[in-house]
Amino acid sequence: MNIVHAAAEIHPLVKTGGLADVVAALPPALLRAGADARVIVPGYPAIMRALHAAHAVTEFGPRFNAPQVTLRYGRLEGVAVGAYVIDAPALYDRAGGPYDAADGWAYGDNLQRFALLGYAAAKLGAGADPLWRPDVVHAHDWHAGLAPAYMAADPANTAKSVFTIHNLAYQGNFWEGEFHKLGLPDAFMRPYGGMEFWRQVSFMKAGIVFGRRIGTVSPTYAREITTAEFGCSLDSVLRERAADLRGILNGIDTDLWNPVNDPHCAAAYDRTNLAGKHACKLALQREFGLEERKDALLFGVVTRLSHQKGLDLLLGALPTLLASGAQLVMLGAGDPQLEHGFRSAAQAHASRIGVRIGYDEGLAHRIVAGADSIMVPSRFEPCGLTQLYGLRYGTLPFVRRTGGLADSVDERVGFFCGPPETAIHETIKRAVTLHRDPDRWQTMMVEAMGREHDWSSSAQRYLQLYAE
Ligand code: ADP
Ligand code: GLC
Is-contact 257 368, C-beta < 8 A? Predict the structure, then answer.
């Protein structure tokens, strides 16, 4: 079976979050499971620079304001499967990020930029590459949400579509007056059975309505998004598609995230020899200028600073954390108010709280390895990868019971700080108390490190879904 994955991010070239990790790791897992998988991504500068041994597959005339679009196929540095790259400089050759310009504002033509991603992926399904044709076009998140729509609009397109929701809160909604730019049938722009969403064009809704199957990244989130509380106003649409909706928990890349030989870390360790973990903790305390204390429970955070992630709850609980004798290191970027809040806390308590604002892959690994507990107090979390990295490194997850956090953590390997938002205080105290008993803590670490979260079983579930 041939599967092409369409997405706006791919690790290690373009990443703003877990989507990039999944898009890099799932296709090779499908290869290992006996399928043939490729990816299709926009030709941002970082992608064009990393593209090697490529040939032009096909060209599309002027499309979506791009005078010329060349679809290339080749190898991307650091990516384990073959890649189609959409070479359209007018849309993708920009200095900023994948979605936003350097000044932080979204590009004014994101509608066109990501319509082209869906369009090109759909074209592959229709046979654009004479040498390779996908049976399934698997589109990820709103950026690729139009692939199922373009496929549904073309009766000659024999491939089947799967649409995975990584985060329902980011929907790709645009002014309804722009619909005509997409070249889709007018009938697609309706509220029932179409992609109209409160007088907007919704790429997310298009994926949900037109995808032959819909997936999301954990069983609990698959249930949650059919409720008004988590449904981001699309819950009724998702309830209608409930029979075709699947929740499949993400795996992690166990080569990239491996305490046995992590090049970013001060020392190596595994569940039979944890000495290296203590060395990683001391190195991390030193890196952040904290008191180098083995006995202090060191919490770690690696995150986007957004409302979703609940870091305001942690900020509010810092007095409790400090009073209980714990320490905290935080790496993150996003909401300026939260950045300011954490920076101020670190200035006021420099020996106990360390904060780095920014994005730093190596430091993310050192925090996951060196902390005793990784905090993910999210209000909602479709899957979450950092708690899975934590488990693998014996860094006990401290999470809220929601989405993929509820599906991957239990009391034998971690701590739940609610749903109730105030529960975080009590849970911090409970974790600190438990940490004073090194034997019990170590038992949990060893249990956590024994949990399997590689991609193999989830890849099998995706293959079953494709087979349907
Ligand atoms: P989300 O995709 O919602 O941000 P996930 O937990 O699925 O959440 O994935 C986040 C990914 O991004 C992880 O690989 C995490 O290590 C990484 N990450 C998040 N923030 C940072 C940061 N500031 N520096 C380095 N890596 C980060
Ligand atoms: C999204 C979600 C996160 C998930 C990731 C990869 O960014 O917020 O929970 O782990 O996608 O599926």
Answer: yes
* Domains of the chain, each with CATH number or no CATH: 2-251+456-467 (3.40.50.2000), 275-449 (3.40.50.2000)
By C-alpha distance, which of 386, 76, 411, 394 is closest to 250?
A: 386
Measured from the alpha carbon of residue 300, the closest ligand is 1
Residue range 315-338, pLDDT digits in tens: 999 999 999 999 999 999 999 999
Q: Is 383 in the pocket of ligand 2 (CB under 6 A)?
A: yes
Nearest protein CA to atom 18 of ligand 1, as residue = 303
Candidates 452, 275, 257; CA nearest to 366 is 257
Distance CA 118, CA 57 (A): 17
Query: Is the pTM for the entire model greater than 0.85?
Result: yes
pLDDT, position 385: 98
CA distance linking residue 363 with residue 67, whole number of Å: 42
pLDDT digits (tens, 9 = 90+) for 119-160: 999 999 999 999 999 999 999 999 999 999 999 999 999 999
Q: How far apart are CA 174 and CA 92, in angstroms?
A: 19
Q: What is residue 154's three-state secondary structure?
A: coil
Span from the CA of 331 to the centroid of ligand 1 (angstroms): 10
